[in-house]
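Per your request, structure below.
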């Protein structure tokens, strides 16, 4: 039984891709044999990626390589990958400069059974505010998780119901008659950025994303299309040894 589909957005960073795949295999252990992995290669991918992909395919129960005919860019590529979800499993999304840590299974198993209404789940935890660059430290109540009205592309987890709701809202969305105020930095990003659209969805539907207090995913900000050099802003505090099992109860513990 496949309970998890991992989709990796692949560009021009074969060393980063190998680092990510190695971390996934080490973090999931024998669970990789119950996981489908999808490699979605943008049109401008590095051919060395194919060598890395072939080396790691045997670790997973099922593997798919998709090569896009046109250059989608990061934002269209991400939305395209969300639309090609596995309806019978959790769907986890990485880019090729991410890295997965051992505590990831704890969070994924929690997300499988979580029954409260959430727009999405995250394996990543922010340490900076997007509009100021200042530290973001959520108040600790209990357990491992908090709710935050913000989306992430790093270690994003969605189930089929969450994807259906977002796609349904997006099909009806019209920027000219969107009735809610949004933070100024989102207006600067514009609707071309997929995180802007998802954040507008969170605001319009009054939903939240479930985050871990400490991240089990990190992002290296490796040199690529958006970065002319490696950029360390996206590296948060990470968790390697999870001992708590208390579940977050909404709305009493809503941050």
């Amino acid at each position: 039984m496949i309970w998890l589909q991992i989709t990796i957005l692949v560009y021009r960073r074969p060393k980063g891709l190998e680092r990510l795949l190695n971390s996934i295999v080490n973090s999931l252990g024998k669970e990789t044999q119950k996981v489908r992995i999808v490699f979605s290669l943008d049109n401008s991918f590095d051919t060395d990626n194919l060598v890395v992909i072939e080396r790691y395919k045997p670790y997973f129960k099922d593997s798919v390589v998709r090569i896009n005919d046109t250059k989608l860019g990061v934002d269209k590529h991400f939305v395209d990958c969300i639309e090609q979800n596995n309806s019978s499993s959790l769907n986890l999304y990485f880019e090729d400069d991410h890295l997965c840590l051992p505590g990831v299974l704890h969070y994924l198993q929690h997300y499988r059974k979580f029954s409260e209404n959430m727009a999405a789940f995250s394996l990543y935890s922010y340490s900076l505010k997007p509009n100021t660059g200042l530290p973001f430290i959520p108040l600790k109540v209990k357990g491992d998780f908090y709710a935050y009205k913000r989306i992430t592309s790093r270690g994003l987890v969605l189930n089929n119901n969450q994807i259906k709701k977002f796609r349904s809202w997006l099909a009806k969305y019209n920027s000219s008659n969107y009735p809610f105020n949004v933070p100024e930095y989102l207006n600067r990003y514009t609707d071309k950025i997929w995180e802007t659209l998802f954040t507008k969805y969170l605001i319009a539907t009054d939903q939240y994303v479930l985050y871990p207090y400490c991240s089990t995913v990190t992002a290296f900000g490796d040199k690529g299309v958006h970065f002319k050099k490696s950029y360390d802003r996206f590296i948060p505090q990470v968790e390697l040894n999870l001992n708590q099992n208390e579940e977050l109860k909404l709305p009493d513990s809503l941050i």
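The beta strands are 4-10, 35-41, 62-67, 90-95, 98-100, 120-122, 145-148, 156-158, 209-212, 217-219.

Regards,
D.
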